[in-house]
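Lecture notes, unit on protein representations.

Consider one protein chain, 397 amino acids long.
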Amino acid sequence: MLEVMEWLEDINYSYDLLINLDSDVLFSSEGFEQYILNEMKDKDYLGIGTKIPDDDFYCLVQLRQEINRWIPLLGNEPYRESFNVGQVYSRKLVLHLLHDDQYELLKSNLRATRAFGVDELVFATIVERLGYKLHAYREDVASTIRYRPHFPLDEIISLVNVQAECYLIHPVYRNLKDETRSFIREAMKRKIQRNPDYQERFMEEYLGEMPFFIRRSKYNGTKIEWLAASEEKGLLYWRENQSGRTKDVLFGPYVFGDGKIKGLTALESRFGNLEAVCRSNNGLVHYWRDEHSGEWCQSEQFAEGVTGMPAFLESSNGNFEVVAPMKKGGLGHWWRNNDDPTHPWFGPAVFGTEHYNEVILVENNEKQLTVIACEEGKYQFYVRDDHNSWEWFGPYD
């Protein structure tokens, strides 16, 4: 954190607040930024669980083993603790810290220490010693930020259902395919697809209905490609050019397909192609873009009797998996055998009885298909027993 503070001042970066976030955090909903701005109006410091530590607090026990190193800087106990993730500093406080007479001692101590987690004690204590009042996050916001265990999918679904202030989650595994990250990422994509206000914030120009974007791993994430439903019929496709220009340009639209598209989802497959599954009327059709010819190809309709927006993924075994709400209730699951040269579709396996208006499909950390379905704003989830019976179980809240 000290290096970040120094760097921001070295480049003369203009900012009001500095927030410490680790790579294993996840923003699960909008609102965190506004919460911080409101909380910090008349404050210079905010932290998670800011208090005098318990006598057996592990980081304090560790620090005491090097007490001779820290007394010249911190003085005698009691010290203060604040969880490292989420600590907020005003720029006024940062400048005071950087220009304090004991700054070099602080920096050298942090470099030399072998004590685990001393930054959770040192920064909060230093701030107080500098004469600033310590403040803590509201408990409803702080409750989703902890040391361990990592947040699993079922706990996140429960939190999203009952806790409006579920802004920032820590810890979440540092893996883009982690079940929790996959769910939140797909939920945010659905918000963009369904809400015109979100679309306006995320895009500079109107790109059709239900826009869906993919950052291409084939190009190491340097290119984005877009799909959207045409207002008339069929689909629209753009690709982003990133050739060193100061402003990237979307090339398109390329129009393909037929019928009025009522829902769409897409991915980049192991074949190197863009693949899309779309609902037209009550049926599902699969489109894919041949990367060699640049042309879009269309399958025969492989599902009927569906409604809403389909969910689509490529499972760890390489097959395509699709789930969609059924008009008569419940959910339908279809899959394509990608090891068969003819690529046949199978299904549906129908499960559940409720009438859902939204569905998200992920593969959980046990490599099982997991469906998160939404009914009247509340999520439930189903899990397929992929290692034994292949049956769907649920719903679970």
